Amino acid sequence: MYNEIDLHKININSNPPTEEPSRQYYFMAKCRGWVKDFEEQNGRTPTACVTTFGCQMNARDSEKLLGILEAIGFSPTDSEQADFVIYNTCTVRDNANQRVYGRLGVLKRYKKANPRMKVALCGCMMQETTVIEKLKKSYSFIDLIFGTHNIYKFAELLCTSFETERMLIDIWKDTDKIVEDLPVERKYPYKSGINIMFGCNNFCSYCIVPYVRGRERSREPGEIIREIERLVAEGVVEVMLLGQNVNSYGKNLDKPITFAELLREVEKIEGLKRIRFMTSHPKDLSEELIEVIKQSKKICRHLHLPLQSGSTRILERMNRRYTKEQYIELAERIRREIPDMAITTDIIVGFPGETEEDLEETLDVVRKVKYDNAFTFIYSKRTGTPAAAMADQVPEEQVKRGFDRLLKLVQDTAREQVAKYQGQVMEALIEEVAEERQSDDSAVPLVTGRLSNNTIVHVPGDASLIGKIVPVSLDECHGFYYIGHCVLDKKDAE
Ligand code: 5AD
Ligand code: SF4
Q1: pTM for the complete prediction?
Q2: What percent of the chain has pLDDT over 90?
Q3: Contact (Cβ atoms closer than 8 angstroms) between residue 412 and residue 432
Q4: DSSP state, 9?
Q5: What are the CA-CA distances from residue 152 to residues 31, 334, 394 (Å)?
Q6: Most buried by CB count within 10 Å: which residue of 146, 191, 210, 282?
Q7: Cβ atoms within 10 A of the Cβ of 15, count?
Q8: Strand 191-195 relative to strand 302-304, pairing
Q9: Residue 200 CB less than 6 A away from ligand 2
Q10: Residues 90, 101 contacting (CB under 8 angstroms)
Q11: What is d(CA 340, CA 348) in angstroms, rounded to the nearest whole number?
Q12: Residue 255 to residues 220, 237, 252, Cα–Cα distance (Å)
């Protein structure tokens, strides 16, 4: 594992090893030469900024990028006026792409002021040929571009990029490779995301993810368990198991195992207190999984179960492979078996061919399931997906109207759901010092905690509570969060 490798001991004058991850350690050692030169010339260490767009998978990838940059000798910074800036991009909706183009304009100015600055782009958006064409044509100041499949080669790409003045582009179409044990710089000391699988095989007709993240690949359970054990030894109490469709985890392994079986193994890890996972596809959510969650003391009471649409007709066109009735039945079964389970969802408005009646069906599901939170999206046409070629795109006015109605309903429902726990005492993992939220009495410092069901609670306290799980009384519900207080004295906290 990474901590046991001393980069100084690697002989960079020999040929690079062919096997991974040793090859990447070799290139990290080599990149240190560039850092040393920089330090000699500038009298300071170079700085690096990693900016993340998109989902939790990208956030985790960014921790890996930063881990490598730190191993090489860069000091991390949040400022994009840095010596090295990398954007880890998202392309799930077009506005994510537009934001990147907008911000590249700013980076260009920074680079003019600091010509030694290096700019890199990686992630999902880079897997699109049209994007690469545009970057080559109009953003020639970029030094390095790579995609989602060769992110583990970051050190090697960086090394090659340091040796050339030209734009280096390395995009792979797919990979079946999973490289373990590269350095990671975690954002939070007490919680961490863990990839359990990569890619997606579902091909929902609106979604670009299977094209940019490739086919589904599961990590070996032993590797996952070892990684979590290491994290726990470092002080992590909560893990989030990450995958585009965790419910189909393990199907393509040499020795197949189910997601529920994996969870049982993770549960056994001593010192680990909380387990979360994301995302569950409703079509693959098994009885076995519900049973494992029900029996578990560590699995959090929160399930993210994307609906996308409540109309069976639209669900079929979306290639979701469940009906409105099947979804409702599943949600009701979960609520029956595990009554304190929060259910959240994703919904798309304006999918091609969606009528007012289809939207009514979606609103009906929201009323019936009573989501604890819902992320609502306006349909975005993604080139290359089957839905982009569908003729009956919905007029913007109708989409906007439907979106506003849906948003109001999900907010009202979520408020009601969150308020259910007023006055109760529940355990919260304290995550950070709260931003200023109290209108009066703001002299009392607050910290922000998260309940098992993912609801946020602010309680009086200081930074010493961060990373601890404490019982809190949920005193006042303020819409989507609570103001409460710790029930135990700080010193009694776990
Ligand atoms: N347009 C709008 N929303 C989309 N999503 C995925 N693709 C699109 C698209 N083309 C949403 C889905 C998914 C979430 C991560 O993003 O709701 O669950
Ligand atoms: Fe996209 Fe569907 Fe795969 Fe989710 S399950 S990543 S929405 S294709």
Answers
A1: 0.94
A2: 91
A3: no
A4: G
A5: 15, 38, 40
A6: 146
A7: 7
A8: unpaired
A9: yes
A10: no
A11: 26
A12: 9, 29, 8
> By CB neighbour count within 10 A (0-12 exposed, 13-18 middle, 19+ buried), where does 247 fall?
buried
- Residue 138's Cβ-count burial label (10 Å; 0-12, 13-18, 19+) is exposed
How do residues 358-401 score in pLDDT, each as one tens digit? 999 999 999 999 999 999 999 999 999 999 999 999 999 999 99
Ligand nearest to the CA of 388: 1
Assigned token pair, 292: 């494992």
Cα angle, residue 455 at apex, residues 454 and 458 outer, rounded to 5°: 125
Torsion of CA 332, 450, 53, 88, to 10 degrees: -110
* C-alpha atoms less than 13 angstroms from C-alpha of 343 in its C-beta half-sphere: 27
Indicate whether residue 379 lines ligand 1 (CB < 6 A): yes
Q: Which amino acid is at 306?
A: P
Q: How far is CA 217 from CA 76, 285, 327, 403, in A?
A: 31, 18, 26, 35
Rounded distance between C-alpha atoms, residue 342 and residue 451, angstroms: 11
193 beta partners = 240
Q: What is the pLDDT of residues 315-365, one digit of tens each?
A: 999 999 999 999 999 999 999 999 999 999 999 999 999 999 999 999 999
d(CA 117, CA 417): 49
